[in-house]
């Protein structure tokens, strides 16, 4: 789960597994797998970083790369 902020200042927790797409229009818009769109105050890169950190915490992505993965 990641913490995000709506444009009105309300914070909410989003299950990052359901993020399909993040875009800047210029406001950052998070599109979920359900098709629902949420506009947030955080920059696109910040949302991506939070989602990646969440994936690492739940072991969806490895924490470190092995030498064979780098080649």
UniProtKB/TrEMBL annotation:
Protein name: Flagellar protein FlbD
Keywords: Cell projection, Cilium, Flagellum
Organism of provenance: Fictibacillus solisalsi
InterPro entries: SwrD-like
């Amino acid at each position: 789960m990641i913490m995000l902020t709506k444009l009105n200042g309300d914070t909410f927790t989003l299950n990052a597994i359901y993020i399909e797409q993040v875009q800047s229009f210029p406001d950052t818009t998070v599109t979920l797998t359900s098709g629902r769109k949420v506009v947030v105050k955080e920059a696109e890169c910040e949302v991506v970083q939070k989602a990646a950190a969440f994936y690492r915490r739940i072991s969806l992505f490895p924490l470190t790369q092995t030498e064979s993965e780098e080649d």
